[in-house]
Amino acid sequence: MRFTFSRVLLILCLPLVLLACSSPHISQYASEKPRLDLSEYFSGTIDAYGIFTDRSGEVKKRFTVVIQANWTIRNGQKVGTLDESFEYSDGSKQKRIWTLTEVSPGKYQGTADDVVGEAQGELAGNALNWTYTLALPVDDKVYNVQFNDWMYLITPKVMLNKAKMSKFGIELGEVTLSFYKR
């Protein structure tokens, strides 16, 4: 086998490329502050402002969300309800009601009418990683799209959210949100 300069360079760079494609792990944020407590942050009224960008980075939709959130204890577990009212830049509106359950310290499950199965969440320090499949209506069809959300508490009132959307492992775009707790 003959090794050319380009093959050697490819072999040397491949581990770096693979490393660059890996996702962060929630444990990386364990010591970050302020510490995120979902039942504390998502309590009361939260306003959110967001955009959806396609793969090229072009903004396709802008939207606002008003979230009414509260928590109770059921069967010894914290259970939260996040009632989300979306309004898009084209005037359309949407509603999503999440039910979140803390299944163990720092681990959450969630359901909503348009979520396929259960969402899984893990929290550490100031960060939450939330993964789920959303039944997303586009024109006259519904597509099951995977979301990988990363939420970061910046101050006690501000949280940022970056969500990658994919289908069959192919990235479709991103949703970027800023939350402000009233």
Characterization of the model:
With 182 residues, this protein is mainly beta. The protein has helices at residues 5-21, 38-41, and strands at 44-54, 59-74, 77-88, 93-104, 107-111, 115-124, 127-138, 141-153, 158-167, 170-181. The chain has a ten-stranded antiparallel barrel. The longest helix has 17 residues, at 5-21.
CATH superfamily: Calycin beta-barrel core domain
What is the helix fraction of residues, given as a range? 10-25%
- The geometry reads as globular
As for the CATH topology, it is Lipocalin
Strand content: over 45%
Strand order of the largest sheet: 1-2-3-4-5-6-7-8-9-10
Q: How many distinct folded domains?
A: 1
Ends apart, CA distance between termini: 66 Å
CATH class type: Mainly Beta
Short description:
This protein has helices at about 5-20, 40; strands at about 45-55, 60-75, 75-90, 95-105, 105-110, 115-125, 125-140, 140-155, 160-165, 170-180. The termini are far apart. It has 2 helices and 10 strands, in the order ααββββββββββ.
Can you tag this structure with a few keywords?
182 residues, mainly beta, Lipocalin, ten-stranded antiparallel β-barrel, 10 strands
Topology:
Blueprint: H1 5-21, H2 38-41, E1 44-54, E2 59-74, E3 77-88, E4 93-104, E5 107-111, E6 115-124, E7 127-138, E8 141-153, E9 158-167, E10 170-181
Antiparallel strand pairs: 1-2, 1-10, 2-3, 3-4, 4-5, 5-6, 6-7, 7-8, 8-9, 9-10
